[in-house]
Amino acid sequence: AQSVTQLDSHVSVSEGTPVLLRCNYSSSYSPSLFWYVQHPNKGLQLLLKYTSAATLVKGINGFEAEFKKSETSFHLTKPSAHMSDAAEYFCVVTAIGGKFYFGSGTKLNVKP
Amino acid sequence: KAGVTQTPRYLIKTRGQQVTLSCSPISGHRSVSWYQQTPGQGLQFLFEYFSETQRNKGNFPGRFSGRQFSNSRSEMNVSTLELGDSALYLCASSIRQGITDTQYFGPGTRLTVL
């Protein structure tokens, strides 16, 4: 069985400060993990993905995530938040031939 | 390459009507998945089609159906619309990259049921 838990439904940071969005997963198989971002009234955009290569994955717009098998975590980070990062972020897990399982989302607010 | 396109972008229907939404995947992608997104339930998986066959299915009533054509374009149909069907319907096309698929999403169709 596979599932994803996003530990925070809302995160608020000030512009220029670090961002941390937390994601824990459960998977019976070697998982592939993704982060997507959704701006208001838009579709989901792929930020980055982990598929069993390097555990530190770099994505677009300065985001990165680290796969930690021992902690079953795949947290998303960014060193310095920008106003344009305000959006909802989804952590997703899948495995070979399987469905995609979405977390409930984390809304990121960036204060000026 | 052009991204995933969905038509129409906005729809307003009344209860009891039916609706058909269309999705054109990225060229070369053979899998298309549909999701319903609402503020209360979040993102919920409807179904996935691969090479014109339904490969996976979510937990939705039979009023929700879909199909895929030989060119990989997909349609989903909702019959006998209910107020609760108001949602953003997202389509994603996917392709095998490495050991698993990667999904790419369209902009969605916003359905309002009055």
Summed up:
The complex is a heterodimer of chains A (112) and B (114). Chain A has 112 residues and is mainly β. Chain A contains no helices and twelve strands.
Question: How would you explain this protein's 3D organization?
Answer:
The complex is a heterodimer of chains A (112) and B (114). Helices cover 0% and strands 54% of the residues of chain A. Chain A has no helices and twelve strands. In chain A, strands 2, 5, 6, 10, 11 and 12 form a six-stranded mixed β-sheet that branches. In chain A, strands 3-9-8-7 form a four-stranded antiparallel β-sheet, with no helix packed on it. A two-stranded antiparallel ribbon of chain A has the order 1-4. With 112 residues, chain A is mainly β. By secondary structure, chain B is mostly beta strands. Helices cover 0% and strands 59% of the residues of chain B. Chain B is built from no helices and eleven strands. In chain B, the strands form two sheets. In chain B, strands 2, 4, 5, 6, 9, 10 and 11 form a seven-stranded mixed β-sheet that branches. A four-stranded antiparallel β-sheet of chain B has the order 1-3-8-7, with no helix packed on it. Chain B starts with a strand and ends with a strand. The A-B interface holds A 30, 32, 34, 36, 41-46, 49, 51-53, 90, 92, 94-96, 98-100, 102, 104-105 and B 4, 33, 42-43, 45, 48, 56, 88, 90, 92, 97-108, 110.
